[in-house]
Design brief:
Helix content is about 40%, strand content about 15%. The chain has about 350 residues and is α/β, with parallel strands linked by helices. Strands 1, 2, 3, 4, 5, 6, 7, 8, 9 and 10 form a 10-stranded parallel β-sheet that branches. Helix 2 runs parallel beside helix 9, helix 4 runs parallel beside helix 5 and helix 8 packs parallel to helix 9. The longest helix has 15 residues. It is globular, with a radius of gyration of 19 Å. The protein starts with 13 loop residues before the first helix and ends with a helix. Bound molecules: S-adenosylmethionine, 6-(5-methyl-2-OXO-imidazolidin-4-yl)-hexanoic acid and iron/sulfur cluster. Iron/sulfur cluster (SF4) binds next to loops.
């Protein structure tokens, strides 16, 4: 069986992954596109919106992060948002066309007293007809179970880099801690969103290691966010050298080939990328983005700019589910994709 056939394998080896990275760029993109088309509509891109529900003062020391309490990044800290505020933001995101709402908290892990609030957020956002995703740091088995029972669809928990590079980026937890949380999320039956960051000053071998780890988990993550480092002044990685942009595209392409059925998200870093580079990422098999002007603490492209980009590329938002407001049972709410089409029809 050809390694490019699109068959789902969880036994990838580092030499195989390295060999993919070493292909001529055009061959790599062609193969990624072939795999992509076996499993997806190559012109459909899923759109998620992010909200930081608790910002800053994080006890972890992730060297890339604006929210770590270990560095002075000038960030305004915020306590856990009120449930009503989160629901209002989710409704806005839905009205602008997002199909998934991702809530992130700057926690090492949620405290027991936080759980009732986050569980209620899941239920209320889900009731808007949105898919729900959370990223709250490490979970134990019981917390994962509670989130699953509340109806959380996805849990995001990134491996970020290779196992051997990890302790140069984060020292307050281990790679095994991350793998343990991912196992709890899987065991609780939630969909797994796990990916990493590119541009941390890592070597290509670290990118090989990260993708090999993700592609040899017991099951591939349903969603694989590939973030380009957003450099944050005041963090140890605030002035790291830029990575060759083609290496970022290669990382997307290799992720697509290794995990043919997963959604590969062109995640943080789009604001700093030219649109031509984003288009190459879609060609390499990225089929999901964060949509809306803000990621967690940093800027994302304007929604209108993304609508225009989709229009220029002939891309349409992937429709995942009908959107109904249960409290208005008989009245269907506009489907996000139709909103995009309306906007795209008038976009210049
Ligand atoms: N505190 C939780 C955790 O780390 O698991 C959840 C929030 S954390 C901000 C979510 C992810 O955002 C991180 O795992 C990392 O991959 C990504 N991220 C954070 N800061 C970033 C930056 N400056 N550039 C790119 N990605 C970043
Ligand atoms: C992911 O992989 N990227 C998102 C989401 N999961 C939570 C976060 C990106 C954060 C970028 C930096 C910031 O805005 O603070
Ligand atoms: Fe905290 Fe998450 Fe930022 Fe690390 S990435 S400092 S755990 S918010």
């Amino acid at each position: 069986m050809s390694q490019f056939s699109g068959v789902v394998r969880t036994d990838w080896t580092r030499p195989e992954v390295r060999a993919l990275f070493e292909l001529p760029f055009n061959d790599l993109l062609f193969r990624a596109q072939q795999v992509h088309r076996q499993h997806f509509d190559a012109n459909a891109v899923q759109v998620s919106t992010l909200l930081s529900i608790k910002t800053g003062a994080c006890p972890e020391d992730c060297k890339y992060c604006s929210q770590s309490g270990h560095y002075d990044t000038g960030l305004d800290k915020e306590k856990l948002l009120a449930i009503e505020k989160v629901v209002e933001e989710a409704r806005n995101a839905r009205e602008k066309g997002a199909s998934r709402f991702c809530m992130g908290a700057a926690w090492r892990s949620p405290r027991e007293k936080d759980m009732p609030y986050v569980l209620e957020m899941v239920k209320r956002v889900k009731a808007l007809g949105l898919e729900t995703c959370m990223t709250l740091g490490m979970l134990d088995g019981g917390q994962a179970q509670q989130l699953a029972e509340a109806g959380l669809d996805y849990y995001n928990h990134n491996l970020d880099t290779s196992p051997e590079h990890y302790n140069q980026i984060i020292t307050t937890r281990s790679y095994q801690d991350r793998l343990d949380t991912l196992a709890h999320v899987r065991d609780a039956g939630m969909k797994v969103c796990a990916g990493g960051i590119v541009g941390l000053g890592e070597s290509r071998e670290d990118r090989v290691g990260l993708l090999t780890q993700l592609a040899t988990l017991p099951a591939h993550p349903d969603s694989v966010p590939i973030n380009q480092l957003v450099k944050i002044a005041g963090t140890p990685l605030g002035e790291v050298d830029d990575l060759d942009p083609f290496e970022f595209v290669r990382t997307i392409a290799v992720a697509r080939i290794l995990m043919p059925r997963s959604m590969v998200r062109l995640s943080a870093g789009r604001e700093q990328m030219p649109e031509s580079l984003q288009a190459l990422c879609f060609l390499a098999g990225a089929n999901s983005i964060f949509y809306g002007e803000k990621l967690l603490t940093t800027a994302n492209p304007e929604a209108e700019a993304d609508r225009r980009l989709f229009q220029r590329l002939g891309i349409h938002p992937r429709e995942e589910q009908a959107v109904f407001e249960p409290t208005l049972a008989a009245a269907p709410v506009n489907r996000p994709a139709s909103l995009w089409r309306d906007a795209m029809a008038t976009a210049g």
